[in-house]
């Protein structure tokens, strides 16, 4: 690559679209296949990994940035959610996307909006129990995005493992043809899963936050040493979390990876997961064991 094209690659910016009409026109002219990466912005290397995967697999890559009010069950969490459009657009471009849709609330939810998409039992445990209404907000907005983009593939992070299962279920149930692609969790060097909310941690909370990863790895080590009792693995995770006084566990789970119901005994894999509060900031992480 010569110097000029290197410079161009570094400074490349995606086309920014605002309205549904602009989105439609851009996608009508787009080369197929189209890959969609839905985000709420405050982009980090985890989001970039989704965009890069889409870039490798699709002729056109579109990222959406929308802090979806319907999926926040706490108004304060919505208000404090980090927003930085200029740096997000640069990150989207550097990761290789062609288009970025940054709609207003009225572009996503037109006047008179009165539809809600609800997925059943899968949304009841874990995040669904801790955050009432959260998944209805997620599935409603993702159904809108999948409908508007009619993408061939949509890329989601394993970081939000329950969200991934719920979106897959919805796409299957509603006959949405978009392939739902799962992407691995990207972590900081100390093991903390990257999250837009990490920026809200105080230095002391940030220093303590890798305890989620340590707790998950302790349970994984127990499993690898032959432990098959679900409660024993949940206890192993709680014991590690208890070593960090700033960490207040919301839930700790060892669940069936398909139904997300808590397991008494593991005989066909499990999803270890947890949500932990550090003051007002709530972090989640998970580890599948097979
Ligand atoms: P969000 O902006 O938090 O709604 O996330 C948008 C997408 O990025 C979701 O599919 C997330 O699962 C995914 N994502 C967020 N953090 C990570 C991470 N650390 N590694 C991989 N994917 C992530």
Describe the fold and architecture.
The chain folds into 2 domains: 181 residues, HUPs (Rossmann fold); 94 residues, Pantoate-beta-alanine ligase, C-terminal domain (Pantoate--beta-alanine Ligase, Chain: A,domain 2). 41% of the residues lie in helices and 19% in strands. It contains 12 helices and 9 strands. It binds adenosine monophosphate. Adenosine monophosphate binds next to helix 3 and strand 5.
Instruction: Summarize the amount of helix as a percent range.
Output: 40-55%
Q: Report the total helices.
A: 12
Proportion of residues in β-strands: 15-25%
Q: Classify the fold: give the CATH topology of the largest domain.
A: Rossmann fold
Major sheet size, sense and barrel closure: 6 strands, parallel
Short description:
The protein folds into two domains: 181 residues, Rossmann fold, CATH 3.40.50.620; 94 residues, Pantoate--beta-alanine Ligase, Chain: A,domain 2. Helices cover 41% and strands 19% of the residues. It has twelve helices and nine strands.
Features:
290 residues; alpha/beta; Rossmann fold; Pantoate--beta-alanine Ligase, Chain: A,domain 2; 6-stranded parallel beta sheet; 12 helices; disordered N terminus; binds adenosine monophosphate
Write the layout of secondary structure elements.
Layout: H1 3-11, E1 15-17, H2 20-28, E2 34-39, H3 45-57, E3 60-65, H4 75-80, H5 85-94, E4 99-101, H6 105-108, H7 127-130, H8 134-149, E5 153-157, H9 161-174, E6 179-183, H10 203-208, H11 211-224, H12 230-242, E7 248-255, E8 270-278, E9 281-289
Helix pairs in contact: 8-9, 11-12
The structure holds adenosine monophosphate (AMP).
């Amino acid at each position: 690559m010569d110097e000029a094209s290197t410079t161009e690659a570094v400074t490349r910016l995606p086309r920014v679209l605002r309205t549904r009409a602009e989105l439609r026109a851009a996608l009508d002219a787009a080369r197929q296949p189209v890959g969609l990466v839905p985000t709420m912005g405050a982009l980090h290397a985890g989001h970039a990994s989704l965009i890069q995967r889409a870039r490798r697999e699709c002729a056109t890559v579109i990222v959406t940035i929308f802090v979806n009010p319907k999926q926040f069950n706490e108004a304060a969490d919505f208000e404090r959610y980090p927003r930085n459009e200029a740096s997000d657009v640069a990150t989207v471009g550097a990761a290789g996307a062609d288009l970025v849709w940054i709609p207003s609330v009225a572009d996503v939810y037109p006047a008179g909006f009165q539809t809600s998409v609800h997925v059943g039992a899968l949304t009841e445990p874990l995040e669904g129990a801790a955050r009432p209404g959260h998944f209805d907000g997620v599935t409603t907005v993702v159904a809108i995005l999948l409908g508007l983009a009619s993408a061939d593939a949509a890329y989601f992070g394993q970081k939000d493992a329950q969200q991934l299962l719920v979106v897959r279920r919805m796409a299957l149930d509603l006959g949405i043809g978009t392939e739902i692609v799962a992407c691995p969790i990207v972590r900081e060097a100390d093991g903390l899963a990257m999250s837009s909310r990490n920026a809200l941690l105080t230095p002391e909370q940030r220093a303590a936050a890798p305890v989620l990863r340590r707790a998950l790895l302790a349970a994984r080590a127990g499993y690898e040493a032959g432990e098959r009792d679900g409660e024993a693995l949940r206890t192993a995770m709680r014991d590690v979390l208890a070593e960090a006084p700033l960490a207040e566990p919301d839930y700790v789970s060892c669940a069936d990876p398909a139904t997300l119901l808590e397991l008494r005994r593991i005989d066909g894999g499990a999803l270890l997961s947890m949500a932990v509060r550090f003051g007002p900031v709530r972090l989640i992480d998970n580890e599948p064991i097979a």
